Amino acid sequence: MSDRMQIDDPVLWPYWEGAQRRALLVQRCQACGHHQHYPRPFCLECDADTLEWVETKGHGTVHSVTTVHVQLLPELKPPYQVALIDLDEGPRLVTGIDGTPCAIGDRVTVTWREREGLPPLPNFTKAAP
Amino acid sequence: MPAPLYITGVAETALGEVPHENELSMVAKATREALAEAGLKRRDIDGLFVNYMGEEGSVQVAEYLGIQPRFSDSSDLGGAAFEAQVHHAIAAIQAGFCEVALIAYASRQRSRRARSLSGGAPAMGVPIMHQLEVPYGLPSPIGRYALIAARHMHQYGTTRAQLAEIAVAARLWAQKNPKAWSRDPLTIEDCLNARPISEPLHRNDICLVTDGGGACIVTTAERARDAAKKPIRILGAAESHTHWHISQMKDLTISAAAKSGPEAFAMAGITPADVDILQPYDSFTITVLLALEDLGFCKKGEGGAFIESGVLRPGGKLPSMTSGGGLSYNHPGALGLMLLIEAVRQLRGEAGERQVPNAKIGVAHGVGGLLSTAGTVILARE
């Protein structure tokens, strides 16, 4: 994968390789079944070192959300939302909200933001009711 | 604590905008003032504790001061480093590794225009944060504190007006401090109408960006004998941290103070009810709210209701941010040392118009990083 060379972090390559095919991957412990993100060489719950990458269903719930009113990145025109999402599999992650603004407790589904020269970035959008 | 230890000298650097000095000259001048209060000489310093003073910070500062410490600490616990370093200094002095500890800091972040909200270049690099958080445009550090505030509001019904009360209380104190940067009148209404930065945090929920810093001497009763000012006893100190990435903070409404607070109070043998003055780290209004709850001044989730009646203001039952704090007095990137200095001055009874009558026990509570770190120091006038 050509993008691999731009991400100088071999431990996260599987995550970005997943993103390349629009799959949101997290680690799962083969010993206790705990899901974790970001990846580590051991399970935070049971200390086992037998972890595998698994594809999440891409569904989650908004744990917290902020609406940003300052421009930090050329591609993000304020106001925009950044949220903490609890994936149904367990891990919590920072993400961007696409489309309709979300509130805490809203159900959301993964979408992908294309980027020039980098793997797509997982964002989330309000789930259809 | 076995043998009693004391803060015997404190001093601020020049504050606000400091165009004609560098960080090392600022630290050196504050150190000379703090040593004069402590009745000690530069070469008496044998333990050096600094943060954010550049690469190998304590090595640079020691060379500049012309001293050769036998105990050295450049621990980076963000803004809480200095309270944590009081904790470290206690350990070092009691172990016999040093006798006279200097804690020092200076920043010219305002003059240098060194602050940016972006949290670094969005390009992919090694840091996990640059891969997983920076590309989403979450302002650093404000966005993390905003996520925490939003969650606290959702979970406990905390309101923006309650957070605004913290900014207003800080401003009322600042109006009594001639050194404070912002002294114009400020109302709850002003705060509610201020422009949003990262909701629910608006302009007045966010600290200043100024130049500043200071110096603080920690030592034994024996070495405190020649102090020119009344030595202030260290009753307790503790530190902790919870996370770096906001996604890894176990509970957004519980800060590291939930560990450092009870530990420091246990060491001191007192309870929050005994505290006369509080210097909480007010990087953001929400930072203060969590500290009040986690240190035990009120129950979890009740911070908003606790402060609503004005307890933090001048004349309130828990005078807090008595310098005007990071919100209105000075915030040189890391506020922790300024909190210790103000606590000492209040306990000595030399805080002028803002003096809290008969203040005997004070708490300086540092918070750093992305609401990651906490350092709690409990001080008393003997």
Shape of chain A: globular
Give the name of the CATH superfamily of the largest domain in chain B. Answer: Thiolase/Chalcone synthase
Q: What's the SSE pattern of chain A?
A: HEEEEEEEE
With strands numbered from the N-terminus, the spatial order across the biggest sheet of chain A is: 4-5-6-8-7
Amount of helix of chain B? 25-40%
Rg of chain B (C-alpha, Å): 19 Å
Sheet/helix structural class of chain B: alpha/beta
Number of strands of chain A: 8
pLDDT averaged residue by residue of chain B: 96
Query: What is the CATH topology descriptor of the largest domain in chain B?
Result: Peroxisomal Thiolase, Chain A, domain 1
Sheet with most strands of chain B? 9 strands, mixed
Number of helical regions of chain B: 12
Q: Which strands sit side by side, in order, in the main sheet of chain B?
A: 3-2-4-7-1-8-11-10-9
Distance between the termini of chain A: 37 Å
The biggest beta sheet of chain A is recorded as: 5 strands, mixed, barrel
Quick structural overview:
The complex is a heterodimer of chains A (129) and B (382). With 129 residues, chain A is mainly beta. Helix content of chain A is 6%, strand content 43%.
Overview of the molecule:
The complex is a heterodimer of chains A (129) and B (382). Chain A is globular, with a radius of gyration of 15 Å. The N terminus of chain A is likely disordered. Chain A has 129 residues and is mostly beta strands. Chain A has 1 helix and 8 strands, in the order H-E-E-E-E-E-E-E-E. Helix content of chain A is 6%, strand content 43%. Chain B has 382 residues and is an alpha/beta fold. Chain B has 2 domains: 133 residues, Thiolase/Chalcone synthase (Peroxisomal Thiolase, Chain A, domain 1, 3-Layer(aba) Sandwich), CATH 3.40.47; 213 residues, Thiolase/Chalcone synthase (Peroxisomal Thiolase, Chain A, domain 1, 3-Layer(aba) Sandwich), CATH 3.40.47. Chain B starts with a strand and ends with a strand.
